[in-house]
Amino acid sequence: MADVLSFFNQYYLSILILLPLLFALIIPFLPDQPASDSQDGPESKQAKGIHTFAVLASVLIHLFAMLSWTGSWFGVITPKEELYHWLPSFGISYALGTDGLSQIMVILTTFLLTMSVVASTVYIKTRLKLYYSMLFILTSSLLGVFLARDAFLFLLFYELELIPMYLLIAIWGGPRRDYASMKFVLYTLFGSVFLIAGILAIFFYLDGAKGVETSEIFLFKTLDTHLVGTIPLLAQLWIFSALFIGFSVKLPVVPFHTWLPDAHVEAPTPVSMLLAGILLKMGAYGLVRFCFGFFPEAAVSLAPAVAVLAVINIVYTAGVALVQTDLKKLIAYSSVSHMGFVILGLAALNTTGFNGAVFVMFSHGIVSAALFMCVGSLYHRTHTRMIADYGGFGSVSPTIFYFFMFMSMASLGLPLLISFAGESLVFYGSFTSNAFHTLIQLGKLGSWQWTMQAAAGFSALGIVIGAAYLLWMLQRVFFGPLSERWQGKMTDANRSEVLVLATLALFVIAYGFAPKFLTHQYEDVVDKMATQYQFPDGKYTLSSTKEGRE
Amino acid sequence: MQYYFLNNIWMVPVYPLIAAVIILICRSLDLYRSKEISMGLVVGSTFLGFLHAVAACFWLFAQDPAHTVFVEKNLEWLHAGPFTFSIGYLLDSMSVMMLVVVTFISMLIQIYTHGYMEKDPGYSKFYVYLALFNFSMLGLVLSTNLFQMYIFWELVGVCSYLLIGFWFTRPAAAKACVKAFLMNRVGDFGLLLGILGFLYCSMGWWQSYLSHNPGTSLLSFHAFALAAPHVLVVAGPGLFTLIAFLILMGPMAKSAQVPLHTWLPDAMEGPTPISALIHAATMVAAGIYLVGRVYPIFQVSPSATAIVAVVGALTAFIGATIALTQTDIKKALAYSTMSQLGFMMTAMGVGAFAAGLFHLFTHAFFKAMLFLCSGSVIHACEDEQDMRNMGGLWSKLPITAWTYLIGTIAISGLIWFSGFWSKDMILEGAKEYATPIFALLVLTAFMTAFYMFRTFFLTFTGSYRGSAHVHHESKVMVYPLVVLAVPSIVIGAMLSGVAPFEHWPVFAAYIQPPDVTPVVMGMLHGSTIAGHGAVHETVHHGAWISEIGLLSLGIGLAGVALAFLLYGPKPIMNLEQFKQKPVIASLNRLFSRKWYFDELYAGFVEKVYLVFAKASARFDSGSIDGLVNWTGRSVSSSGAALKELQTGRVQTYIAVIFYAILVLSLLFIYSLL
Description:
The complex is a heterodimer.
Chain A (H helix, E strand, L loop, with lengths): L1 H25 L18 H22 L15 E6 L4 E5 L3 H24 L4 H20 L3 H10 L1 H11 L4 H30 L13 H11 L2 H18 L8 H8 L2 H26 L1 H27 L4 H21 L3 H32 L15 H14 L6 H14 L5 H6 L8 H9 L1 H18 L16 H19 L2 H15 L11 H8 L1
Antiparallel strand pairs in A: 1-2
Helix pairs in contact in A: 1-2, 1-4, 2-3, 2-4, 3-4, 3-11, 3-14, 3-20, 3-21, 4-5, 4-6, 4-11, 5-7, 6-7, 7-9, 7-10, 9-11, 9-12, 10-13, 11-13, 11-14, 12-13, 12-18, 12-19, 13-14, 13-16, 13-19, 14-15, 14-16, 14-20, 14-21, 15-19, 15-20, 16-20
Chain B lengths: L1 H6 L3 H18 L6 H27 L9 E10 L2 E9 L1 H24 L6 H19 L4 H19 L6 H30 L2 H10 L11 H31 L8 H4 L5 H10 L4 H8 L1 H5 L2 H24 L3 H21 L3 H28 L17 H15 L5 H16 L1 H26 L14 H20 L12 H4 L6 H8 L22 H21 L7 H4 L3 H11 L4 H47 L6 H23 L1
Antiparallel strand pairs in B: 1-2
């Protein structure tokens, strides 16, 4: 028994990444679905079998991932770091590791995978085997991204995700799927150019530097200890910017966001759930891990710009969301808006802001997946996404209505639901941030002092506009009398949909009531990250900074 | 027994939450169908809360009013960096007062609801919402700190949204609930920024305070008397006033103060029990309660106080003027609520702290009763709300008419009913503060008596003008009216220390504003705000006859007389002709169009913000995405153009090579020269 446990401890991370891949390889050997299966027809026995297999596999993956969830009765495994030198002369190794931050992203991935697979049993009817294989390959690459401890390996997994995602949108997508999937791939590759440039630059700067082994250049621990001090500040600024742009595409940050509404609108519902739930978080994770984790000096200098981008993200896209006529686009823009809170929290450069940013990453994952599920359930029944076509569904589809309303409330940051804690931390962190006081003491940019406060203040407008677009949407979709068009045609959520939405709702309530259980998982990681940002006047009062200036 | 109720006072909000969860689960699994179980669970949970509140009352009154103690217990809710957010319960005179009001009135209204909603298909859902509201409201009342209050503050807002939109298939209700939520969000936006600004200026102070006082919490209400002067010093008077104003925005939206008031009248689209409970007695008073909780912020800054007083007085006045013209009985009552909330807010501004909360207390009883009366009338008249189609209902609905009359007398501040005492105290405070505000309030008091009796005469006297068949009053709806009539008559006098109640606890003695004077004096050496040191309110022992009392009685009687002459059984003049006169007509238009606030906001949203948002959306899909698509297209079109060069004909290639070599060799020769 002890041997088994130690084996799992040793290879847990690799197994976790390979497990979905294994399922992806098994699925092609399942019995074929009859060619007669169409989107609307009854399901064949084989199709049911494939669905069942996928659900069981995803649950298994989730349970396996839960084995390392510390602080619960599940957490029996303490995974060890894995390190194999792969191409030593280029500094590339296969290094895996985990910490609180990776942990919650892994759990989010596997959890949303399960949700998405259950949703797929309702919404996906054609070419199931290919579909599920792609879904599981996608999961593998996502897990790889969050568990990689080598910058190059990270990049590899980061790019690997493109292939299954492209196919998922291009094969099972809506009418404009070719355009949307191509745009998604090209746009992301555009971002990757910057990522590769940044990561290569790191290699050239660190190669041959004092105390750095060539074979270990890309390891996170090397970057953590040797990056600052070895690379000149100006180069750090450039690398930071390149990485930031790269991750901005995925997050997305305005103006690199226009792929997202298209991809979301065309992607099938379960894929939208994953796309909003986790794929965007890869960008956020990259920002936390790389930009703000390894480049503190550059981050301090560029934080004002990041804060400004955050405000634009939050307020501008919320305004754009308000006037969308397509329900799915509205939710997609709301995702962009919420990602603004992540970068606002990061720009604060303090513990509270970082905590809040990571919390928003997690909470948005759950809430946006649920919102896309709600949209999907409407689309599945009406075959239209135009808000103007809807109206008065509250009386005929009460279950969808109440879940949609509940998730909208969660999304607009209602207290005691999951998003509130994260957004509060971001606001409190950014408003009390003194990230810009350092700049004042540097003698540059003296007027930046109130920028962070102003940024936080403007972002708070997001809570008004956010409420506006969600409530207005609810009003137009569900309130009022049911129009003639849908009389007798609309049905309520079926059992699988209720299962998915209720499970997500449960987590929305649980972490809303007790956010501590989530922050406990990752706070040591971000706290450590935030200690890099010790400002000369570390006190959080206006008076002390005033004195400091005189 | 008493100790059990006292020590477990945190259970008060938890009972209704449990009731809500039980109903929710059982109803969605269809475990029971009987309506009475839903009602029983919710009423029972509130009744338990009421027992706690009574126990707390005994605990409070056993203390010496000059030295009341408070109990504060906190649990860490979230921790990050220097911030530790706590949730807990605070037991002091203010929270005890609110607990009594909320649990008592909630309970009666929940009983009343059984009669009102009996035939509604959403009966159990309604009780779930009521229970959730109780949870949020009681959580708000027991909050120990501003952060916790913000949590429950938003939750009562969402309950209000759900309940206004209860009949969401009606477009008006759908609009009203969204409007209410958004208007409150605007207020919350200010409140959030105010809290952030306040914290920004005092983070270091809080850290040292918390380390010296374990067991308290960040933004704890009982530390505000110390924190506010500190923030004033750090921020300076200008910035401090801004912070105070931002914090005030929250109460302004929640308590329907000008200019964030427009949601309250529209909220009357909700079922009437909701109008009585949430939009008259409890939730809308939460704004006043919050101002009372963070009172030191306003105490230390004269300009902040002035803002509160002016906002309150304007609200009182504007609300009353609009109420003059309303024909919908619930709308008229809604504007009167707004006006009365204005009175309370003014009281907070003029330094009459106890008076404001006393008015909150008495108003809750008689306004809840008035709304329940209107509900009884509407129910009897088959959902008719227009007073022009009522009249002469006295004979059909005697108990409703009597209780409505009692409520009308109370709100008008007549013959020593409960409203008289609290309004009296407010007028006294305003008189000491500034004459214009006092004058405005007196004028408003006159209008209050007038429009309230106008509604009374229009509804209950004269002859019936409607077409609907009038039903009789339902018993379950009448009992709460009778129960509420008692405090509406006597509670004011009982808690004012007048004979024969001189041995009863005096409200103003227990509800005292926090004492900031010593801190302010110590910090500022009496320099800047010494003139404002008079924050000690003398405990008001009411008298049956006083100068102000006589004045308000006279004013009130004048209002009643005018209403009687114009709307009574024998009107002395034709009002329609009177309304045609030029000045009157324009005033009438201004009042009946509600001072054009709605038009202003709708104009801003439609003509400014939506236009801007649409422009952003066009920019987004046109410019940003246009650039992206242009890049893609230009790559493929340039590829298409370049592919023409690849002809596959050898002659072309040789010609290109020949000319290229020619050009290059010419260049080479040229460089040699």
